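Listing S7. Sequence submitted for prediction.
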Amino acid sequence: MAGLRLEFPTVLAPGPLSRDGPAVKRAAEQHGVGAVVVKTVYPIDEDTPRPCMAALRGDTLINHDWSALSAEKFCRQMKIAKEGRKPVIVSILGNIEEEIKMAKLLEEAGADMVELPIANPPLEQLRENIRRIKEEVTIPLGVKIGPDIQDIPRYAREIEQAGADYISGINTLGPVLAIDAKTGKPLLGSKFGYGYLSGPAIKPVALRCVAEMAKSVKIPIVGGGGIRDGKDAIEFLMVGATCVHLHTAAILKGLGVFSKIVEEISEISKKLGYNSLEEIRGLSLRYLKEEPSLARRIPNVNHDLCNGCGICERACAYTAIKVHESVAKVEEGACFGCGLCATVCPVNAIKLE
């Protein structure tokens, strides 16, 4: 990935689990972690309001943890971080002069890459910043973009043309708000109680963004947002990611989730008949067509698999599915062809014809 060979296609994204040298080492030693992106460093140490994290339903997280080490302080911990024997990528944030200074310090300290998280800067400024950083360091430079960018293909192309070595995405969504129904107070201690959303809730947005990047550039893409298992990871590879990144699942389930994910990637790939990740990468892009499909596809129920649970019947807004004698049956004339039944069936007994 951008000149580095990763043992696994799974990267720990920046966050609390990569907050300092010992944390990076601990994460890097976990089976399944291919590289570690250090929690964003700043020109000076930064603190954050507390509480700064809260778990919501469905393994979703709201987060406002902006605490960080200074680049200089992390450089003194780089030796410990490198003891994990995995590539160390350091996320940096400041004004352009500060970013250049930090990038040079980190390269001298042994960082394998630096990553620049961006919000929605003017393209001319972004191009100039990338160019200037690239002139000062020899290690690869990545740019991490967020979902708030309106024209991701254009930004991705400009990032590539400016000389960046890879693109990462997406960042968290927000700001968002979560309230404690017992007290009426916000769950976080930040201004207005605002935070940023991560976890499975943002995955559909992230997949769209990564697909748009992959269709626009040739440089590697580190894709993620809401990944919690091997199936999720494969979906990101299918829309063009070179490798994937995650953090929320590791916070909520522990770093051992990486081992589980890489095992599942292998198992699912073999089950689907793929011999390598190269056969998976970008597979879905050919199906992402500009012209919408208006054809009505009627669901077909496999009676050998159907257990008559009734989930499809309850979910059908068109009352076209009824469970009769413990088997779901479709009334073709009433079916709208929305496809929901095929996605809610817990035993994969329903396919669209």
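Caption to Listing S7: primary sequence and predicted structure tokens for the chain studied. The CA atoms of residues 32 and 262 lie 6 Å apart. The chain has eleven helices and 16 strands.
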